[in-house]
Design a protein that fits this description.
With 962 residues, this protein is an alpha/beta fold. Among the domains are: 184 residues, Alpha-Beta Plaits; 176 residues, Rossmann fold, CATH 3.40.50; 47 residues, no CATH class; 66 residues, Winged helix-like DNA-binding domain superfamily/Winged helix DNA-binding domain (Arc Repressor Mutant, subunit A), CATH 1.10.10.10; 67 residues; 102 residues, Serine Threonine Protein Phosphatase 5, Tetratricopeptide repeat. It has 45 helices and 16 strands. A hairpin with a 2-residue loop joins strand 2 and strand 3. Pfam families: AAA_16, Guanylate_cyc.
Length: 962
């Protein structure tokens, strides 16, 4: 499928390649050009571009394919600049090794193109004039230059540092094109300014009002980068001396657990509580505190489950709030994972009756994803900006014209203003040296530092926005104590607590980091990566690769990074943090090939995660690759896992291939002591028995699956076994009241979110069939709430099916009909014919109860050959009721009798009762009232045996009507 898109095209070509060919031996020339291509590809990929093709010595890249981003022009321009910078580093090596240097020229242009929407398409990807103009701009550029077109220039806005080249007559263009020489890009990330604090009276009053009357609704402080969000919160919090305050900050990269910012904030609240003597032995011994100590406070991950963690946080905060008000602040929430945003909402909902206020801050582009009431920050007025500038001590030695210049350049942004004034205080001549962007201001300040100060700041930037002084000392070479004191005095870093410091702004840290050579970044990241620190190993490898270092050490780093990321992805999956697992898994695969010994494990982990989030085709394809590789290498265990997962998600009519696969794989898992494999295998065998209608056998198999899942500490498998057990408790021979007690016992000892979801859905139906509607709805609400943010595709598909069951049992047929139509669509989209058939039959029965004949295509043919007994019984019974409604009594009776016969091969009292009721309806249609009554009596008996009071009442009413 083709579309028109606004994309940015980049052309990069070698300058003087003909002359180079005349001085280099052909093999050497080829090696040099390939290294240039690798460098270009790496930088383009790093900024989200797609290499369209290599044309001779030229590289063509597209930004905006397959996905358009609002900053595609900026991405392309930044990639172009980075290619020039990386080439300089590559040239340093080439000059030493082969005695040559390379030069390139680059053209960048933006415009509308025709492109395919298929991801992975790599031929004829785009077409349009924009491509030709980009190529012509490149041809007009000089060595080491980047020329950009007018649309690109307009999209870059004030972030671009350019020189106007003028109008160029380009081949194939009737009108001249205005070109610009790109010299640099100013980062668009800005952060809050610091002292003195001026203005913001309205915002402070809003925060005070929320603090005085906490109602459980979070407050979101929203504003552009650098506008003063954090500064506002710091000022406001400084007046809350009696409150227990904790702050945490989100980050733009996923090298940590999703809830790490929440963990940081909670630790600080607990530290404050300890200082006030509130961290009593009674509190520490509470189960909620134990949940946090063994999970969130340990490593930022949600422990057994996210929701149990949120509930524990809410309980601990409520306990503390009884003594002092509590304020929990999360900054930079525009980088937050969905799990964290959902968690804030859940914690807030539990605090409506307590003195607990949750405050978030983020950029306005992401404000719609943040919870709570909004406090929006706008640029400072000219009056407030003047007050701020005048209040800075460093400005006192400068005149009014300089003050006006600073205020004008700052444009109401406190961070801009503070840093510009700091430049003046460092002795810069504002008129001669004033940078045109805050990035330039920060870079100039950093470059003015003494060598020991710069060394310390650089090392701190590699560690992160917040850093431990001892870690930085281990990286920096000397003078750490003196350097830290001077950097603190200059306002570049600030203390947090103890040996922990932080950069005064995220932008300052970014600019510092970008000023470090890639070689040193690689070295320091590697030093920071003992054991299996995936992020630092990954960065060390990427920088060495970007420098063209292709030695054994680089190769070893690639393997270490891939293995560490794979292990982290597995751990995230085991704890049901799917978004984190997918991110880590994709990164692990990016640094792996099928020839690598660790590829199988990395690919298997990512494939399983993709299956869990509903990317079934991609996950299955990747796992089939794992099967092929494992078969070739003799890795029987990996093969067994991959095949079982693929077959578990294969939708091939009524056949259940995963059970056969499980039977073959279980001896392999048993021999290896693979608890995860055993759990998966027994679940699949149990699901087969459920499909056949043998629920008692399924229960026995699921008890084994549970033991193995617990031993493997695998949340998804544990929840899957519990959910399947809930289904058999619902449909099987155990009386409903006993089944409910068993479900609640299981829920009382299992805290994983996914387990709470998978058990509450069948529990809701067990309660509903006993007529306990309110309790059933409470279970549905719990399951729906816990399912939010989990990311498991299966939960989203099954939710309306379970909810429809409750509505149908409660007699709310229009609501059940709506839910079932939604369920049919979702099951079809998921490609599961078994679930489609189940939802369709349920929908047909609901329609018939409303006096409406279901559409013929809903149930399909009446033939039940090949169906297992429970499914056949339901299928034939639904058709029998339909034929009865249409007046085809003989056909209805024949189908109903066959349905009853099939039901006797199951141990489900519900299935047997429903088929007897189907038979009763068919007999009534045929005029056999006595036979109909006898069938209804048998239905009542089966319903009563299960404790299905709603069904028993329905059958009794049928008899009374006779």
């Amino acid at each position: 499928m083709e579309q028109r898109k606004l994309v940015t095209v980049l052309f990069c070509d070698l300058v003087g390649s003909t002359e180079l060919a005349g001085v280099l031996e052909p093999e050497t020339l080829r090696s040099v050009v390939l290294r240039y291509f690798d460098m270009a590809r790496q930088e383009i990929k790093a900024h989200g571009g797609t290499v369209e093709k290599f044309i001779g010595d030229a590289v063509m890249a597209v930004f905006g394919v397959p996905v358009v981003h609002e900053d595609d022009a900026r991405r392309a321009a930044t990639a172009a600049l980075d290619m020039i910078a990386s080439l300089a580093e590559l040239n340093a090596e080439l000059e030493t090794s082969v005695g040559c240097r390379l030069a390139v020229r680059i053209g960048v242009n933006t415009g509308e193109v025709v492109t395919t929407t298929e991801e992975g398409a790599n031929q004829n990807l785009i077409a349009g004039e924009v491509v030709n103009v980009a190529a012509r701009l490149e041809q007009h550029a000089g060595a080491g230059e980047i020329l950009i077109g007018p649309v690109t220039r307009a999209l870059l806005g004030g972030s671009a540092v350019v020189e106007e080249v003028g109008e160029l007559s380009l081949k194939g263009k009737r009108d001249p094109v205005t070109a610009f020489r790109l010299l640099g890009i100013r980062p668009d990330t800005q952060h809050e300014a610091e002292s003195p604090f001026v203005g913001r009276e309205r915002e402070l009053a809003l925060l005070d009002a929320a603090f005085a009357r906490p109602d459980g609704q979070p407050v979101t402080v929203s504003g552009e980068a650098g506008i003063g969000k954090t500064r506002l919160l710091r000022e406001w919090l400084s007046a809350k001396e009696d409150a227990l305050i904790g702050t945490g900050r989100c980050h733009p990269y996923c090298d940590r657990a999703s809830l790490m910012p929440l963990a940081h904030a909670l630790r600080r609240i607990l530290d404050a509580a300890a200082s006030f003597g509130l961290l009593t032995e009674e509190l520490v011994s509470e189960p909620s505190y134990g949940v946090l100590r063994s999970g969130l406070l340990l490593d930022g991950a949600p422990g057994h489950s996210a929701s149990s963690t949120y509930a524990a946080i809410a309980a601990v905060l409520a306990r503390l709030a009884a003594a002092r008000p509590v304020v929990l602040v999360l900054d930079d929430m525009h980088w937050a994972e969905p799990m964290l945003i959902d968690g804030i909402t859940q914690i807030a909902n539990a605090q409506r009756a307590h003195r607990v206020l949750l405050v978030c801050s983020g950029r306005p582009d992401h404000a719609r994803t943040l919870p709570g009431r909004a406090v929006n920050l706008t640029p400072l007025s000219e009056v407030d900006a003047t007050r701020l500038a005048a209040g800075l001590v460093e400005l006192q030695s400068h005149g009014q014209p300089t003050l006006a210049r600073v205020i004008d350049r700052a444009e109401g942004n406190p961070l801009y203003l503070e840093q510009l004034v700091a430049m003046l205080d460092d002795g810069a001549d504002l008129e001669q040296q004033l940078p045109v962007t805050v990035t330039a201001v920060l870079a100039a300040r950093i470059d003015a530092l003494r060598p020991d100060e710069r060394m310390f700041l650089d090392a701190a930037a590699v560690v992160g926005r917040e850093f431990d002084v001892r870690t930085v000392e281990a990286l920096a070479e000397s003078g750490a104590v003196a350097a830290l004191a001077e950097l603190t005095r200059r306002g570049l870093v600030e203390p947090v607590s103890g040996q922990t410091y932080r950069f005064r702004s995220g932008l300052l840290r970014e600019v510092t980091y970008q000023g470090i050579s890639k070689r040193r970044r690689a070295q320091w990241h590697e030093e920071l990566a003992p054991g299996s620190a995936g992020h630092h190993l990954e960065q060390a490898y990427l920088y060495r690769q970007g420098l063209g270092i292709r030695d054994d050490h680089t190769a070893a780093l690639r393997g270490k990074a891939a293995r560490a990321l794979t292990e982290a992805a597995r751990n995230a999956m085991a704890r049901a943090d799917l978004s984190w697992s997918e991110n880590l898994g994709k990164r692990a695969i990016a640094y792996s090939t099928k020839d690598d010994p660790w590829w199988t494990e990395a690919a298997q982990g990512l494939g399983e995660t993709w299956l869990a989030v509903g990317r079934t085709a991609e996950g299955s394809e990747l796992l089939r690759d794992v099967m092929a590789t494992a078969a070739a290498t003799g890795d029987n265990l990996a093969y067994a896992h991959a095949r079982l997962q693929v077959d578990s998600h294969s939708q091939t009519g009524w056949w259940f291939p995963a059970a056969d696969t499980a039977r073959e794989a279980l001896p392999e898992f048993e021999a290896a002591g693979d608890q995860l494999g055993l759990a998966r295998g027994y679940v699949r065998l149990a699901q087969e028995q459920q499909f056949l209608g043998s629920h008692r056998t399924a229960e026995q198999l699921l008890e084994q699956a549970l033991r193995h899942a617990e031993a493997a500490n695998a949340a998804p498998e544990h929840a899957m076994a519990l959910g399947a057990l809930g289904i058999s408790l619902w449909h099987g021979p155990i009386p409903a009241a006993d089944a409910v007690r068993r479900c609640r016992q299981l829920l009382a000892t299992r805290e994983h979110d996914v387990a709470i979801v998978t058990l509450n859905y069948p529990l809701a139906n067990l309660l509903a069939l006993q007529g306990l509607e309110d309790e059933a709805r409470a279970c549905l609400a719990t399951a729906d709430r816990f399912a939010t943010g989990l990311g498991f595709a299966e939960a989203a598909v099954l939710a309306p099916l379970f909810a429809a069951g409750v509505e149908a049992l409660a007699g709310r047929l229009p609501a059940a009909q709506r839910l079932l139509r939604e369920a049919v669509q979702l099951c079809r989209a998921a490609g599961d014919p078994r679930l489609v058939a189940t939802a369709s039959r349920d929908l047909a029965r609901v329609l018939l109860r409303q006096g409406v004949c279901p559409e013929p295509e809903l149930l399909g043919p009446a033939d039940a050959s090949g169906l297992p007994p429970e499914q056949a019984a339901d299928h034939l019974g639904a058709h029998a009721r339909t034929e009865a409604a249409k007046g085809n009594a003989a056909m209805a009776l024949s189908l109903a009798e066959r349905a009853v016969a099939e039901s006797l091969a199951t141990d489900s009292p519900i299935t047997r009762a429903i088929t007897q009721l189907d038979l009763a309806i068919a007999c009534r249609a045929a005029g056999h009232r006595a036979t109909a009554r006898n069938a209804a009596v048998r239905a009542v008996t089966w319903f009563d045996g299960k404790g299905h009071s709603v069904g028993a009442r329905t059958a009794t009413e049928f008899m009374d009507a006779l």
